[in-house]
Amino acid sequence: MPSTTVNVKKKPMQARAKARRDRIIACTEDILSRDGVDAATTTAIAREAEIPVGSIYRYFKDRNDIIALLHQVAYDDVVGTVAAALEKIEPGQGFRATHEALIRTFWRAARSHPTFRVLTRWANAHNSLWDVTPGPESNLEELVRQTLVVAGVKLPEGRENAMMRTAVTTLSVLIDQALEEDNERKADALIDEITNLLTAYFD
C-alpha cells in the first residue's frame, strides 16, 4: 500500500509555490499600473513581493516573461468584456451598427483597464507586427467571427480565411492607434474610420 506521507507534504508545498507565483504576478501588475514598464525590474518586483530576487527565476525566465503573461491576461480581460457586450446585441442590425458598438466597447474597456495600454505599448515595441497580430483561433478572430454571425454577414467561400486574416490584422493595428489617442473626439473619429473601412470590406 503506497504511503500518503509524500502527498500530504506535497500539497502545502504546491500551494505555497502557487501563492508565491501569484504574488509575483500581482506585484508586477501593481508596479506596471503605478510606475510603468521600465520600473518593473526583477529587483523592484522582488522588493514589492518581499521575496529574494532569485525566487522570481524559479517561476519565470525573466521580467519580460511576467510582462508577456500579464499582457495576455489584460488582452483576454478586454476581449471578454466585448464578448459579453456582443451577447446583448440584437441580431440582424447589420455589420456597421454591430461593429461600431463593439469597437467602442473595446476602446472603453481598454482605456479603463489598469495595465492594458502600457502593456500593449510594450508588446508593440518589443515584437514584430507578425508577433503581436492575433492569428487564427485567437480571441480577436473569434470575436470578429461572432460579430459577423450576429450582423448576419456571410463571407464568400474560398475567401473566408484570407478575409478574416485581413480584417483581424487591420482591426488590431488600427485599434491600437485609437487607444493611443487621449482626445476622445479624435479617438471617435478613428473608430468611425475603422468601422467605415471594415464595413466596406465586409458588406
UniProtKB/TrEMBL annotation:
The record's keywords, sorted A to Z, are: DNA-binding, Transcription, Transcription regulation
What positions does the domain HTH tetR-type occupy? 18-78
Recorded hits in Pfam families, A to Z, give: TetR_C_15 (PF17918), TetR_N (PF00440)
Q: Does the keyword Cytoplasm apply?
A: no
The entry's DNA-binding region feature spans 41-60
Q: Which Gene3D superfamilies match?
A: Tetracycline Repressor, domain 2 (1.10.357.10)
Instruction: Give the PROSITE patterns listed for this entry.
Output: HTH_TETR_2
Q: Which InterPro entries match?
A: Homeodomain-like_sf, HTH-type_TetR-like_transc_reg, HTH_TetR, TetR_C_15
PANTHER family per UniProt: HTH-TYPE TRANSCRIPTIONAL REGULATOR BETI, HTH-TYPE TRANSCRIPTIONAL REGULATOR RUTR
* Protein name stated in the entry: TetR family transcriptional regulator
